[in-house]
Hints:
Helices cover 30% and strands 29% of the residues. The chain is globular. The chain starts with a helix and ends with a strand. It has a seven-stranded mixed beta sheet. It has a single domain (3-192), classed as Rossmann fold (3-Layer(aba) Sandwich). The protein is α/β, with parallel strands linked by helices.
Amino acid sequence: MDRDEWNERYAGRDLVWTAEANRFVVAELTDHPRGTVLDLACGEGRNAVWLAEQGFEASGVDWSGVALDKARRLAEARGVSPTFVEGDLTAWTPEGRTWDVVLLAYLHLPWTQMQSVLARASDAVAPGGTLLVVGHALANLEEGVGGPQDPAVLYGPEMVTSALPGLRIEKAEHATRPTPNGDAIDVLVRATRP
């Protein structure tokens, strides 16, 4: 989907996704030392807002201005002030090696573009920092429900880890996520910069 299609998708009054943080983000980052966090492809801001509520200095980037307007309203309603920036992640480059946590949740692009985004995300992680990647798994097409149905924008744990130069892989696995229609299969990768 292009930017206009995402803006149209987010145009309704209600949130497209829930206002609650993703279960894997909560599980992986609840006990993480506080610091700066960069939420790439933040959409309506649910993860960035939750992270700000937990005491992180949170920033989010997304190419949908409509989604970011919703993210700002959600943050205001919950009494936090993450920074939100409109940017196309296929071209936008975060400042290198400065973020304590970089989060990339459910961004799905053709693999060549995704590799570039992952490499820039990896480069943004500060020494001692963490990169967390969560997304719909390629295995979900046959073993799970929901998510994108185009295999060209899906990936597996080993694909993600191959695109993270300079990071130490702590976790790279398929994770099951219950949905109302059955279990979805996601990718969960956690890596740190030594």
